[in-house]
Design a protein that fits this description.
The chain is an all-alpha fold. Helix content is about 75%, strand content about 0%. This is TRAP transporter large permease subunit.
Length: about 600
């Protein structure tokens, strides 16, 4: 029911934005109420998806550490994880209800009570509490669920009490509490909220209502509407078979090389990146389509999974990129400039992966006969609808024809029209795509919202100044700052989700980079590249976990198999760092690129 409700909200959200875009370009004026209504619908989508973000595969739970424990300790850790989740859920539920009761006035354009936005989070929190406890009952037992509820209520009471113990940096308490929750296997967004709440007992400056207000404000940004639309466009392309056309075109280009099928997976990922923007979506598609073909050609299953996971990281580098949208929302950097920088970084990473695949594949003969020019032309024509999507989106954003959100909505419309004209979609597949995209978008949105109060604590505690001191310990030169910042990111990325790491670390590191004379756009691109590499590293390695889960393989085996590709990506990261630090005038826009050439 929640998935269907989320799908309905996403469908209405798409219609609202498309109506505004159509009116703007056909009649020359927009709909004054469309932006505000779209933001409110996005808030509702996140609130509705909160239960799914706590109890489904979207929960971003870190269970690698817990799985190393003996069975009795694992059961205790599971109860504690649910208790932390209950604490975070209670903050959303009761805090949302409190703010809804206190806030007055109406929205600027719609004339709706402002309290509704917070009431939706209170309702979503209440539903999440029910499902969290239900999950505990199904996974363990009624007594375990009851203990988790009581412990969660105890943590909530502690967070709202005056302990008399004050620390100079309450964000440290929040970080330690959230980190403990993450290691125990609590869902990441609720662990962040619980950590911020607990810091209030030790001098934190965010009472419960303020936490909810920051969370709602974190998801109330028009730019963030692009995330569900890009996710939906990627789902439609996959369901409509256009992604498979990209694979055929890639095979015609590089299938005859050594390790031809693996290189085909790489080129297909590059092409799919221009239409999806989601590495997880690409990894899921590759695990279902490319991995079985690799295994059938003689690749060991773990190596096939490693290749699919490795090449999937390009989706959040090559535009359009959801990671760059999150970075722009956190730092106010230009989305268009970040996307152009993503093309440069994507080319370097693609070359590195191609070399890594060439050197690491042994004992497999999978080269296909060289495709004729006619075969390549036919496959190119077949892939044009999917390739055209990426071109339309990126060119439209970069040259200011459309905003990022408008471009993402047009991407959905483009995917729908293209698939319907090719008769590769029906009502059932469209609805399934809406359900899946809505759930994923809600999980990402909740993470962004949960990171907002945490980021506020970091700002109040002036952690950015301490971070600046850390990354300038070897001097304030561009190269020293770049290398130390990447060391910080490499360590943090081992334990933080990619989205959370961008939201929390980018605002802290960017001022130090600018002070060292680094270009903020180039530094932002390197930051995203660094964190995307962690999609392949234990223990969080989301891309490895997605692929191994679909292929029913041991994540540990895939983590071992991906090491050669990981090494090639780290070399590419080092090259990018040297280029940015030693060459501050590296082109960051198409106009500058042509001038430089």
């Amino acid at each position: 029911m929640l998935e269907w409700l989320g799908a309905a909200i996403l469908a209405v959200l798409f219609l609202v934005v498309m109506a505004a875009v159509t009116r703007r370009y056909l009649l020359g004026d927009g709909l004054v109420w469309s932006d505000e209504l779209a933001i409110w619908l996005n808030v509702a989508l996140v609130a509705v998806g909160a239960p799914l973000a706590a109890t489904s595969a979207l929960a971003m739970r870190l269970d690698v550490v817990v799985n190393l424990l003996p069975v009795p300790a694992r059961r205790i850790a599971a109860v504690l994880a649910e208790a932390i989740a209950v604490h975070g859920v209670l903050v959303l539920t009761l805090g949302g209800a409190s703010v809804a009761a206190l806030v007055g006035g109406t929205s600027t354009v719609l004339g709706l009570p402002e309290s509704l936005r917070f009431a939706t989070f209170a309702i979503g929190g209440g539903l999440t509490l029910v499902l969290v406890l239900w999950r505990a009952v199904l996974a363990q037992s009624w007594p375990a669920a009851l203990v988790a509820l009581l412990l969660g209520m105890g943590l909530y009471a502690l967070a709202n009490s005056a302990t008399g113990f004050f620390v100079t940096t309450p964000s440290l308490v929040a970080g330690l509490a959230a980190g403990a929750g993450l290691l125990l296997g609590a869902p990441l967004p609720f662990a962040l909220i619980a950590g911020v709440s607990l810091s209030g007992a030790f001098g934190g400056l965010l009472p419960e209502p303020a936490i909810v207000q920051n969370t709602v404000a974190g998801v109330s940004k028009f730019l963030l509407l692009a995330i569900p639309f890009f996710l939906l466009a990627g789902e439609l392309l996959t369901a409509g078979g256009l992604a498979e056309r990209l694979v055929r075109f890639a095979a015609a280009l590089v299938g005859h090389f050594r390790a031809g099928l693996a290189q085909t997976a790489l080129v297909a990922s590059v092409l799919f990146s221009g239409a999806s923007g989601s590495s997880v979506a690409n990894a899921a598609f590759g695990a279902k389509v490319m991995a079985p073909a690799l295994v059938a050609r003689g690749y060991p299953p773990a190596n096939a999974a490693a290749i699919v996971a490795g090449v999937s990281m390009l989706d959040n580098i090559i535009p359009p990129s959801i990671a760059f949208l999150i970075l722009a929302a956190a730092t106010n950097l230009s989305v268009g400039s970040l996307l152009v920088g993503g093309f440069v970084a994507g080319a370097v990473l693609t070359l590195a992966l191609a070399i890594g695949i060439h050197l690491s594949v042994r004992g497999v003969v999978d080269s296909a006969p060289r495709a004729s020019n006619a075969e390549r032309a036919r496959s190119f024509v077949g892939a044009l609808p999917a390739i055209g999507l990426g071109i339309v989106v990126v060119v439209g954003i970069r040259f200011g024809v459309v905003t990022v959100t408008e471009a993402s909505a047009l991407a959905v419309a483009y995917a729908l029209v293209a698939c319907l004209l090719l008769r590769s979609l029906n009502g059932a597949t469209v609805l399934a795509s809406l359900r899946k995209a809505a759930g994923e978008a809600a999980a990402v949105g909740l993470l962004i919202g949960a990171s907002a109060p945490f980021a506020f604590l970091l700002a109040v505690d002036r952690v950015s100044e301490q971070m600046a001191g850390l990354v300038t310990v070897l001097g304030g030169g561009p190269l020293a700052v770049m290398l130390l910042a990447n060391v910080v990111l490499l360590i943090a990325g081992l334990f933080l989700d990619i989205g959370a790491a961008i939201l929390l670390l980018a605002p802290l590191l960017l001022p130090a980079a600018i002070a060292a004379g680094l270009d903020p756009i180039q530094f932002g691109v390197v930051l995203v590249v660094n964190l995307m590499i962690h999609g392949l590293t234990p223990p969080l390695g989301i891309l490895v976990l997605v692929v191994s889960g679909i292929m029913r393989l041991s994540p540990a085996a895939v983590f071992r198999a991906v090491l050669p590709l990981l090494a090639s990506l780290l070399v590419a990261l080092f090259v990018l760092c040297l280029a940015v630090a030693a060459w501050p005038s590296l082109p960051v826009s198409i106009k500058e690129l042509f001038r430089w050439l």
